[in-house]
Amino acid sequence: MKLAIVILNWNGKKFLEQFLPTLLKHTPEYAEVVVADNASTDDSISFLKECHPQVRILSNDRNYGFAEGYNLALEKVDAEYYCLLNSDIEVTEGWAESVIEMMESDPSIAAAQPKLRSLYHRESFEYAGAAGGFIDKYGYPFCRGRVFNTVEKDEGQYDTPIDIFWASGAALFVRSRVYRELGGLDADFFAHMEEIDLCWRIRNHGYRIVVQPQSVVYHVGGGTLPKNNSFKTFLNFRNNHFLLLKNLPGRRLFPTFLARIVLDNVAAFSFLAQGHVKDFTAVYKAHWAVVKQFGKIKCKRDGHTGAYAAVWKRPILLEYHLFQHKKFNGSEFIK
């Protein structure tokens, strides 16, 4: 099989009902659709068996989270390419073919993403990926089409395929050989930023990651954990530190973490000032989790740090708040 489109599901029956028919309509002949279920309790499996028997089902015995859930499922999938696809994605005609064609043209391309638009604001980019992901020196991710909470309308301004730092886990195409070679997603992340970690490792090993804007999908976003969920805050802060600890060059670890302690405290007290006490607490729970797992995560450093050359060296916080640069076009910030 050339392509396996794998949806990780956990109590997402409503999304499967809404989006699976369109996916099946626009799945190329050389691909299969697989649903990997993380022990759902909402009748997802019975719905699939009754309404879409052509979909292959892989059942995990419990909820392993995004990272380990996918790793367990993909061990059982034999394909040249994987597409890790969120259940809350609406695909369009030719969405998979254009990405696979681009990856087939250059063996150095190990991962790719389509252009992500918002399902509910269809002319705008979607937060989690937009037109390709990047990261700054302190670990803050941003995108062409989305910097912090500023999301642009898609007016064709980013319709050129370019190399990016990370591809969105909402619709991540990856060569299976590379995925296995690098050990897949890091299960210690559980969920959030695990795809950025994988992409950083991919780039560290000399492969390219690209965005194919000719492929368009629409994303609900926040389908599993809503934006204002304190557990999501915990995961974002903890996993961001995991990401830096694993992938930064050694000389950058101390100055980066020193700066992040200051910046995280500012973020925590900003949460508190807004009355978000649980988010305030989540920041410090995340720090403690990093301390407890510091040795384990540090042991995962593999000595490859070449991708740091592509990290944006100016702090995005200054670009955004001080200089009022709200957009990033792939090479520079602009107003």
Radius of gyration, rounded? Answer: 19 Å
CATH first level of the domain at 3-219: which class? Alpha Beta
Number of H- or I-type helical stretches: 10
Number of E-type strands: 15
Give start-end ranges of low-pLDDT stretches: none
**Any idea what the CATH superfamily of the domain at 3-219 is called?**
Spore Coat Polysaccharide Biosynthesis Protein SpsA, Chain A
The name of the CATH architecture of the domain at 3-219 is: Alpha-Beta Complex
Instruction: Report the sheet-strand fraction.
Output: 15-25%
Mean pLDDT rating? 96
Major β-sheet annotation: 9 strands, mixed
Class by SSE composition: alpha/beta
Describe the structure.
- The chain is of the alpha/beta class and 335 residues long.
- The protein has a domain of 217 residues: Spore Coat Polysaccharide Biosynthesis Protein SpsA, Chain A.
- It contains 10 helices and 15 strands.
- The strands form 4 sheets. Strands 1, 2, 3, 4, 5, 6, 11, 12 and 13 form a 9-stranded mixed sheet that branches. Strands 7-8 form a two-stranded antiparallel sheet.
- Helix 7 runs antiparallel to helix 8.
- The longest helix is centred in the last third of the chain and has 24 residues.
What's the gist of this structure?
The chain has 335 residues and is α/β, with parallel strands linked by helices.
Defining key terms:
10 helices, alpha/beta, globular, 20% strand, Spore Coat Polysaccharide Biosynthesis Protein SpsA, Chain A, 9-stranded mixed beta sheet, 335 residues, 15 strands, two-stranded antiparallel ribbon, 39% helix
